[in-house]
Amino acid sequence: MKTALITGSTGLIGSELVNLLLESNQYEKVIAFVKRDSGINNPKFVQHIINFDNPTTYQELVKGDDFFCTIGTTIKTAGSKEAFRKVDFEYPTQFAEMALKNKVKQFLIISSLGATESTGNFYLKTKAEVESFLKKMNFESISILRPSLLLGERKEFRLGEKIGGFFTKIFGFLFIGNLKKYKPIESKNVARALFEIAQKNTEGYTIYESDAIQEMVE
Question: Which of 6, 127, 164, 185 could pair covalently with 68 via S-S, beta carbons 3.0-4.6 A apart?
Answer without folding.
Answer: 6
